[in-house]
Batch of 4 targets.
Target 1
Amino acid sequence: MSGVTWSPSEREVERRRVRRRDRTRGAVIATSVTLLVVVVLVWLVTSSPGWPRVRETFLSWPDAKASFPEIAKGFWTNVKLFLIAEPLILVIGILVAVTRSTVSPWLTPVRAAAVLYTDLLRGVPTLLVVVLLALGVPALRLTGVTTSLFWLTLVALVLSYGAYVAEVVRAGIESVHPSQIASAQALALSRHQTMRHVVLPQALRRVAPPLLNDFVSLQKDTALVSAVGVFEALFAAQDYGNYNFNYTPLLVAAAFFVALTIPLARFTDWLGRRAVRRERGR
Amino acid sequence: MTSPVISARGLRKTYGDRVVLDGIDLDIHQHDVVCLIGSSGSGKSTLLRCLDLLEEIDDGVIELDGREVSDPHVDPRAVRREIGMVFQAYNLFPHLSVLANCTLAPVRVHGTPADEAAARALELLERFGLGDKADAHPDQLSGGQQQRAALVRALCTGPRVLLLDEITAALDPELVGEVLEMVRAEAEAGMTMVLATHEMAFAREVATSVCFLDRGRILEQGPPGEVLTAPREERTRQFLRRVLPG
């Protein structure tokens, strides 16, 4: 009724005009400041004394084009490593985190193993885990265990990152307010059901940003497997550089990694916003 | 009559299609205790939030000491420095002790020296029976104690006006008294207050003026003796019948 007949007062019309003008001014400031910073940065870099030499060895278009197919082929290995490792890491991380938050006396050895696992694998550099597994496991000459470097390095990445993710998930579990657990118990949910239906969903939503951070980090760390000679993007780029004395392929490889991580970052931003919208009713 | 401390004219606020405030006119003079009553959803809380510039209004004018503060170029923080607000859910900062909750704004916003701010906060906590809770964290306190601490936090900045948003609505009945006692003491000391409340007995006793809000409008306003005992409007009567016992 009144919503139909209402029309803004003169003061409100004026206020809207002022807000609009302020917004426009804000946009102009944002654009010009950004442009200025970019221009200054470009000028600083291109006017440095070593710039011509750097441009030749790092920004050679022909070398970029020539190395592209091999790097793209190598990068497919990175993508495969990452796509297979990610779900496995998530599963291990959640299992270890949930194990650490159990209280049953029967599970004490399992809990101890979970603590030992996170302590050890978070302590050892990922590169070292990769090298140890890739060189050590084949040396054992076990029957039935793969000697494929791809799979061994994949396991190394999963073990190393599983420990990190477990700690992130555990922090999320501990951040859920005790009153939530109390009200789940009041509904007679079992400990397992409480964890599965009440605690974990809230915990995982809350730790989504740091989890993504770890996954972005993992995407980059798939390049560590080049240390034992797995043919991936960095390996292909270095290979080309060593033969042609030009480092442009390194930048090409870097571009591949960036192109993969940025969409993932936007995706999590979107997930986070959607969660907020749903829970707070916009 | 002196000019009002806070004055609202033609206040309008919508959320999407829903009109929450529909042309509110309200004057609050110094030492006034204005009680906003009305069913939930009538706009009481939104009105308080608009007065503290926590919500952007869709039309109308808000003035503080005769100066328009609903102007987009007014710094809302300068306005909020003059106003204290207490919420239904206490909203104490759980990571700070009660004392630190109370000294945060005086020290960081008002530039009061830390020892001075602490002395004043302790004095107020003492006066309202929380002297021994100064070093406790909010979650260790009862609801009533938390809300009293929240009131002390609001008082510590020496506000000219206090906005209280249903501050007893989340409390056990037996804890309501201790909080209202504190509000009464402040009212008697001459604090200017606007409170949204469901405590009709308290409103009758303490208010200088009662506003009945209905669908975003002030349907009826006057001294509590009039509005609460002999309301003019049928809707006010209906509301009072629902909330008053007997």
Target 2
Amino acid sequence: MEKFEAIVVGAGPAGSAAAYGLAKAGVKTLLVERGKAPGQKAMFGGRIYSFPLHAMIPDFAKDCPIERYVTRENMAFLSDDTALSVTFDAPKLGTGAAASFTAYRAKFDAWLAKKAEEAGAMLITGIRVDKVHRQGGKVAGVATNGDVVLADVVIAADGALSQLARSAGLRGDPSPEEYSVGVKETVELPQKVLEERFNLDEKEGAAYVFAGAASASLRGGGFLYTNKATLSLGLVVSSEDLAVTRTEIGTVMDRFRRHPAIARLTKGGKVLEWSAHLVPELGRAMSPRTYDDGFLLAGDAAGFLLNVGYTFRGVDLAIASGMAAAEAITRARTAGGYSAGNLAVYERLLKERQVTTDLETFAQAPFYLKNPRLFSVYPKLLNEIAEKVYTIDGTGQRKLSEVARAEAKAAKVSPVRMLLDLLGGARAM
Amino acid sequence: MAPGPRSIVCIKQVPKAQELQVDPVTNTLKRVGVPSEINPPDRNALEMALQVKDQFGGEVFVLTMGPPVFTSALEEALAMGCDRAFLLTDRILGGSDTVPTAHSLSETIHKIGGYQLIFCGEETTDASTGHVGPGIAGHLDCAQITYCSEVQFLGNRVRGKRSVEDGFETWECPLPCVITANFLSNRPRPPSLSGKIRVKRGGLITTWSCADVGIDPGKVGIRNSPTIVAKVDTVVLPDRKAKIFRGEPKAAVTALLDAMAADGVLSR
Amino acid sequence: MTLPKDKTEYRGVWVFLEARRGRLRDVSRQLLGVARGLAQTRGSDVSGVLPSWNVEPLAREAIEFGADRVYLVEDPRLETYTSRPYAKVMATLIGKHKPEIVLFGASKNGRDLGGRLHAMIETGLAADCVKLEIDADGNLDMIRPSFGEKSLAHILCKQHRQQMASARPNVFPIPPRDPARKGEVVREPVEITDADLDAKVVSFEERRGHKGNPIEDAKILVAGGFGLRDPKNFRLLEDLAKELGGAVAASRKAVDAGWVPKDYQVGQTGRTVRPRVYIAVGISGAVQHLAGMQESEKIVAINLDHNAPMFEICDYGLVGDLFQVVPEMTRQLAERKARRPVPVAAR
Ligand SMILES: Cc1cc2nc3c(=O)[nH]c(=O)nc-3n(C[C@H](O)[C@H](O)[C@H](O)COP(=O)(O)OP(=O)(O)OC[C@H]3O[C@@H](n4cnc5c(N)ncnc54)[C@H](O)[C@@H]3O)c2cc1C
Ligand SMILES: Cc1cc2nc3c(=O)[nH]c(=O)nc-3n(C[C@H](O)[C@H](O)[C@H](O)COP(=O)(O)OP(=O)(O)OC[C@H]3O[C@@H](n4cnc5c(N)ncnc54)[C@H](O)[C@@H]3O)c2cc1C
Ligand SMILES: Nc1ncnc2c1ncn2[C@@H]1O[C@H](COP(=O)(O)O)[C@@H](O)[C@H]1O
């Protein structure tokens, strides 16, 4: 029977980072991916925060398939036909360890998996792992179709639904309120047109988040990122809300795409592809335990995902947690074995790498973001206020505060309610 | 119990039939860039051989003749559970029809030696002759059972259930014997994780040229193939301009029947 | 490989006559018609080769269908087809009489035999031809579908003799039978020894099914595929076929799953049909299936998957669940029939 020291399931950012770290430390590692190639089945919005990559491969930018560095951040609140936006222009956002960049997952994941292979891990694609294999109650490998491959320690980096974590009993079956649905399309534009339209230099990129009518006032929001010659346009919407209102995500996407603010940005573009994916929303609450005897969870499988409305972080946390998992294993190895006791160091390493600290800082965010008023009432309100303020038609202008109060009243939100929501938000953020 | 047999499975890599499109401009088949696969009936042949091994032990070798890209078919067969693989590759083999193909494969099988069973698919989806399997039996002057849907290894003989037009015949033959496997006769196993790991470790594929095997260059290749493809007419089917109906079944059926009635398709 | 120095040494068109349980296979009769035409063009004659046991009446029958001569090789060991002795008979007679052209039916046995034989005598063999003609140079132009019927290849065997081909069953018509036709039956002794008998046919299990060719004659066919999930669901198709006055057919996957007898299979390795309306239910539309039905006058596709290739070649498509759609169609058709006024005789 084949045997490895470590098996990593899933060659997404978490898995490849873990396999890279393990192989570098001389651990005999197998990395298993169900897709024909890494990244083939992946989808995400389009932006990656680079700080964990700096820590992992200092000169990563040399060959990493980066599309554009994000130098302009936009946040927009949409009503049915208007948009109120805030733009933050900062070329310095595109440099240093704090930089974020846009990328295609098919290329990025393939690149990262290649790094793991170069470091010495064995990558096998086209195999879907069914479950962990147990011996004497402990995780001792993985099983697919009755075929067992042994390992001293297994990392589940198999993404949001983590079949592996469920098979190991670390997570229960998924329920809709834990997930949002993400959809995305890639829209092709000639590079010149794109750079002119978004007012970008060759390497510069723009990121947008949209709230309100973007998600048909359901909990969620829209995003748009610029790649070299394409746009990544998409939505993340609560699957619970979709179910309750019997709305198809495709219908929401259709409307979003046709919103004047969006249509202007994508005009003349050709849709190249379309994909959908689940996004875990509960953060750490999804999987209270991240390790067991001979077993660790990393990335989305552990719920390491941060969606706080204005940023969407998953890949960076996945990489950082993968690195932490690799380090936990090498430490446990020195400590004499992969018992849960020895692997407990994982939690501390996650903190050190800012994975869980960031998640805890925003621990309330998912619940705050579940407040429906944020997605339906307020974006509309803001747009109505803006409309009143900016409409100079000779019928007499009013003071901003008066407008706001009147609109709030019309929208049937008490000022107290509004204040509480905003305070709640501020605290969560 | 006698040790299990050595089986040699002949497989070919073919373009996926469904993906082949006629180029509207040149009116020829577009073959470049078309994804390829193991010839579907050859998977059934592999499964048949592997089942014999599961039951009686022995070993399963896989053999292909073709360009080096056929390695990926061999790798997949190895990952399914074959023990070793052989690639016969040589420029001079290009353009071989079934006569030199059967000849070259037979010579290679002879060189491998020690075989009791040879498996082929019923036919390939690109050449669709089904002549190579019986051709190998003719060359090697051994028994053959074509269109097999089941085999039973009997130690010194083999029994095969042969699917014919009006029923099933059971043939019993001495060894060695060529078996051609009926398409859909079993459910081919997927490549396994341990199988793929073995492939990755390497060393399972032997590559031979004609000289390595001792194949006479005067017997193979396009120049020594009796048949030539003089020309190919593309079949251009009339564009039927499909009317597609969907949605709620009752209404969709009504719309479909209305349309058919309006076109006079329903009246007798 | 030895090439003939003088190709004119080779004369005559041969047909391998396949006797199956006391009958000549239809495809053998069909080939006699083809062979006549070719022999006429070549200015030669038609011979049949009939290896079997106790089949002299079949040799006479072959003459009535167009053979000028039948080489009859009778031996109890040849009663049932097996590869090696049959190949020996053919190779021996071909070596002795040097025909120019040898034709086989592309039946299971025809292919089994042709495949073995062509490697033994090292000459070309084109499989599954749908057209056989003589070209301007006097060579046999063997025309066969390739790449799942998306093209027709013209195959020539210019240098070698014999030129050999197998022909797809039921593509060529059976020639008219003429009881007055004259020809000779030549008994050919070919010694069959124990060494020639490697295969033993130990049993035969007849497929359940029917006789005749109802699917080729039907004006309307309702064909079911793997999407039907279970043999008992073919009821739904039978009901619809009955309402339409048609018959039921199937894809190979449904046949090989044992749901439907082989006689009902449409496609490259099944039957070729050309009904007025072909309704494909739960059939994806693989090229090998299309091979048998793409010339239907009107094609209706019913499939859950809007990407199914069948939709690309149909006249009418319904994207939906067959388990809802088919009963609904049957019901609505019955309703329409009930509503339809009695035709006025005068019109
Ligand atoms: C719509 C959307 C937009 C997003 N936008 C962003 C963004 O802009 N920026 C950002 O940083 N993050 C974003 N994310 C989140 C980000 O995609 C994830 O957090 C990140 O991909 C998690 O990485 P991972 O390696 O844990 O899991 P994944 O990327 O999901 O990788 C898991 C891998 O495991 C494989 N796998 C799964 N099951 C098995 C199995 N049983 N056997 C073998 N292999 C298996 C999968 O094929 C996959 O390759 C977005 C997510 C969505 C859905
Ligand atoms: C050498 C060779 C020869 C062959 N010869 C033949 C031949 O003669 N004839 C032949 O038919 N095939 C032949 N084949 C096989 C052919 O390649 C296909 O495998 C076969 O035709 C598939 O049959 P199918 O469409 O019934 O099954 P599938 O391909 O499995 O398709 C089933 C279809 O049913 C649909 N479906 C499922 N559920 C439902 C539902 N509830 N409602 C509606 N639709 C549903 C699915 O979407 C799917 O499209 C041959 C193959 C080879 C290699
Ligand atoms: N190039 C090849 N290499 C190995 N096996 C082959 C090759 N060509 C054909 N075969 C085998 O012969 C069978 C019949 O092929 P064909 O006669 O081309 O229809 C296939 O199913 C294979 O098992």
Target 3
Amino acid sequence: MYEPAHGVAILARRDALRLALATGALGLAGPALAQGAPRRGGRLTIGADADPIGLDPVTITAFSSYDFTSLLYTGLLRWNAEMKVEPDLATGFEQPDDKTYVFRLRDGVKFHNGQAFDAGDVKHTFDRILAPASASPSATIFASVKSVTVVDRLTVRFDLHAPSAAFLSYLATNPTGAIVPRGVDGLNTAPVGTGPFSFVSYEPNQQFVLKGNPDYYERGQPYLDQVVFRFFKDQASLTSALRSRAIDMTWFKDPKVSAQVVRTSPDLVSAPGKTTRTFPVWINMKAPPLSDVRVRRALSLATDRAACLQTVLGGSGKVAAMVPESHVGGYDGVGEMPYYRTDAAAARRLLAEAGHPNGIDLGDYLVVAANPLDVACAQILQQQWAAAGIKVAIKPMETAPLIAMWLKGEYPTLLSVALSWSPDPDAIVSRISSMHPQGKGAGMADATLDAMIVAARSILDRGKRAEAYMAIQRHVAENAYCLDIYQYPLRWEAWWSYAKGYVPLAANIRSFVRTAWIDK
Amino acid sequence: MMRMVALRLLLTLPILLGVSIVAFVLMRALPGDFAQASAGTTTISPEALDQLRRNLGLDRPVWEQYLAWLARALSGDLGTSFATKRPVLGELVPRFMVTAELTLVAGAMALALGGATGLASARLRGRVEWIVRGWNSLLLAVPNFVVATLVVLLFGLYFPTIGIFNYVPFATDPLGNLASMVLPGISLALTVSVTISENTRAAILEVASQDYVMVARAKGLSRGTILRDYLGRNALTPVITVAGLQLAALLGGSILIETIFTIPGMGQYLFDSVTTRDYPAIQGIVLVAATVVLLVNVAVDIAYARVDARVSYD
């Protein structure tokens, strides 16, 4: 595909080596055993780049809150380090038919306030999620749930309207599937969960303090007495804080910064994580010239995805299609995709066929100003497209209004919003269905694609489902409905080597703080 | 004098009302609202977004929202923050104290540095003057956030053992608190010191060429007396005006400096609130900032009368 630049290649190898050392015999014996016996006590300080916006898992919408809810609350299921779903508050489940799930619950689990956890709390949680007044973002996600019934104290049954392949993934995801206690209000400011850590205090912009939950149900865990999050809105400050050990662990938005920080100290462990985020160029196809598939294909042919990856991320990532590799049916970055080769001459020919022999001006290309990686990639795309006679003007914008336009499909021609990890690929591809307000707004009208997307939702077999999503991605690339450039980890995590037992998770939360310990 | 002060204070009320209206309308005229801004790219249904807006009262007409806010504000209730779900007033007071401290520290540094360099370049002239003016041009060209970022990176890279993010509240550790204000204070003060320095220099040069200074010199008064009673006092009026005006610049600069040095003040609060469209919080911060600027202006007017005998408000 491409030759990585010399320095970058060395770095990547070093990172990989360190990651291998850090996670060691992970697959065989679990993270804790790989680094000797865990030590009890101590405090882990984590540098966070954003304050939480609310702490009630039923109502929060902001990604910045997930770091906290994932330590405070737990759900029936959870993701393990290999991104497989495993039981958590449940001990197991049965599936009498495609539309029914019966979960058996752990006995003796207590919430942080001492209240005993039982099936009633599970029902309470889903009643809250599905009540329109809660305005819960999880309501659409669990729209497939018809009813939740308490069978007995430790058994709960979910009846679905239709088979749902995504159901278990969403139950395993925090905060979506996090269980809240009944009869407790004000979780936004005083969170009460069953998680490995309980809430101590929060001073906005300063710190968020959690302490180990002595009643946590995993034997011996958590090992840490205290977890403190400190907030650094500025990436340079975050870097300095890590170097000066004001924090023990953090994550960076830019792989080059992460590589540079780790290079300065051999005692820093860096983990690139799995590719969970894609950088797409969304296309508004409502009006000419982009309603013409030949113009869109020309755009795709004019794009050198590998060059973008190399220049912006120093090669720390992969070429992307709609679904990132860490998902069911994710694209591995090397497989054949229609119109993925770079061929400026072919692009020019297609443009001429479409009636634009002298090139074309597509107008504004909107990008998120707050994300330097996005802006950098947009600039490279601008140059690549110019070589094929396609002109765009880059317009960096503030995040909130840009997303508002994107969600309604009301942007002039091109727009980029990177997509973060979501529990199920349907959440990604359904955005370009003509049944979704976003796809409809952007001028989508492809009944074949709509049918493919609907069908994939209820395929329960993992292998068949993966095939269905590959077919959808090929269809999207064939018609160039959306131009995916590269996929990469949302964050590059880094920590001092005295923090042990930690594993980064592709779900973009720090679940494995529960197995971490400090050995200074 | 008392009448003037009372009148000026009374006048601040309609100004504050105007400021609150402008802030309220401007924020709502911006595209995107809290529901959308906080969700980002998270998958959320339009129905849930609408319900969230209803829960926050954002579905009502803007004037209705404003009147409801005003009625509560007049009774001392600035509403509840969308983001933290806590009363805005409770969030604002401690942050204001932090920003006030940072502004005072930076202001004192700027006055000391600006006054000293301005005085030196006016009195010593020659090489000193050129060094000072070169230094000032350099500072004027480098914005405070560049200075702050460089300081942060410098310490992180070469002096990692010196903690620069050790903010502690004044009540817990007064000395540690002051120490944590030094670097952010300098970053904030440098640019402002230029204005003070240049104005001090100009004022002193102007006063020095006045007849009464020549007379004083002819009378054989000592250099110290001339500097203190003739030059200093007469040159102070424009310097006070400028220093007062620079307070607004310091408040504005604190947004960046607090974010870079992670100081939990009003500036960082404003940054967060604007990004998330946390209207009640923005409204509260704007109101407090406007009040401070207005009060400083009144204070500057009072100070005129104290230093300049020609100014009388009666």
Target 4
Amino acid sequence: MKVIVPVKRVPDTAGEKKIDPNDKTVDRDAGEAVLCPVNEFAIEEAVRLKENAGAEVKVLLMGPDNAQSIVRKALSYGLDEGLQITDDAIAGSDAIGTARVIAKALENEEFDLVIFGNQSTDARTCLVPAAVAEILGLPSLTYARKLEVDGDKVVVHREHEEGWDVVESTLPAVVSVVEAINEPRYPSFKGIMAAKSKPLNQKSLSDIGGDAGEVGFDNANAVLIEFAPRPPKEAGTIVEDDGSGAAASQLADWMEQKKFI
Amino acid sequence: MTIPTSPFTDEHQQLRASVRRFVEGELAPHADEWEADGWFADWVFPRLGELGYLGLSMPTEYGGQGADYWATVVFGEEIVRCRSGSLPMAVAAHTDMALPPVLKFGTEEQKQAYLVPALRGERIACIGITEPEAGSNVAGVRTSARRDGRDWIINGSKVFITNGVRGSFVTMVVRTAPPSQTPDGRPDPWSGISLFLVDTDLPGFEVAQKLDKVGMRASDTALLHLTDVRVPAEALLGIEGQGFKQIMWELQGERLIASIQSVAAAQLTFERSLAYAQEREAFGRPIARFQVQKHRLVDMATEVEACRRLLYDCVDKWNRGEYATTEIAMCKLACAQMAFRVADEAMQLHGGYGYSREFPVERSWRDARLMRIGGGTDEVQREIISKLMGL
């Protein structure tokens, strides 16, 4: 079985994110860049398929040249090889543009299963996995909290607000996973060292047959018109108890007013 | 020889990120509970084994990670962030004190029987040097082994043995012959000493007491009694009669890991003190704005940095296979004293809160005090250094 895990280089999730006022895209040099934490859950599922079913796993990244370290980081969890799509023409792509590039890259690859994280921690659109499946004409099984491969079919528990549905499809298929699916492992030192020498193939947009007229900043459907810094946190309400117990009802009134109760 | 400003590679830094996440996510939340129980959970050793952290610098053929000694430094620096000095010490007794002699002096059979399961965290190791009447004086050990056919019969006591209650074997210093004569006719107290690997479940092996300590409270420290403990010839580690030399080699690694943890603990204490000083207000401004506290913080940071440089120099030598006894003894002396001074200054800076059990400072202060005693006291380090200086 061949599995591909698309991953993303994102600004440090815990850090303050900045938007570049010139082109109104995320300033990717403002903070430390990391492997998107949601990808770790997809990687963990792939590593388990490798351990339990002998899957060969390739990591796919679309991003700038210096994102190589993120591919290596993904490989350090035990994945087999990397493919990086780097091209000036794809910079500034929106979710659909991103999905077009990833789908194009996948068209050139052999695979049975693509495992995405359900969202990235920077944009959080959750659109890319389903869009990739749509473009490729493959079954799309999103928000998986459980994933099983059984012969030539994949079965997932698809999470929603009221619980989950059990959904299955034939392979090849595109799956996106949520954080409840597993507990990602930590890369071992052996894994970290081995990642240095694993094959990493770098391709341009034309190498994968992509069309520069469909992707990148100039062809994005989503346009950021205006942005403002997050307003400072407002001071909270302090309820003080004068010893009479009146604070309890004040607190209850406040919670009711805010519709917490 | 100059070492680069940072001796750590990208791979070391990735390891650091992994270890920190593990320590903060899986260990630190339990620190208070383990401290109160006087025992850290039994799952810790197997979990560390599963993550490959018990054998970072050990060869892969025995289940280690095959990394250099700087990986051990990374792990030692990060594990102190578990908010307890006990657990890092207990792990170090296993990984950096009891096990290296098994790798260095052991037979293939001993490595398979002891090292391999120990790196998985399934067998927990102790180092048994100190005795009720012989601590730093290794030549004065009274625990003795006599031959009985192919076997050895061991009698004696060992005290202050880290992991002594939970341990499954002890890398033990034992006298196997009376001191021989040196060529000029004086007794040679360092002769007749040997190392043994002694299983703790043998008849006659008794954990006589779990010791109650000022600090390092989550770690089990034991008094062990051995009464006619029979071990096979295969329990001898290394060469009979060469135990003194072998344990002197072990002590280099022991002093290094103690120095690593001392510097790391002091660094953490400094970071906490800085954060507290910037937050805590007195007379209408954060106490970090008072010159007296600024200078205190600067002194703490300076001492930590100076010791770290000495430590990294020693680590670099050790990593390249140099046997730098004098420098390592100096390093242990300096780092242990510094760690306690920094903890003491941190307590002073925190005032009444520092003395209260509500803040982590008091634990760091109690834990740091051991560093001047364990792994050879300050006084012993000075004796070693003075001897090597020809005084």
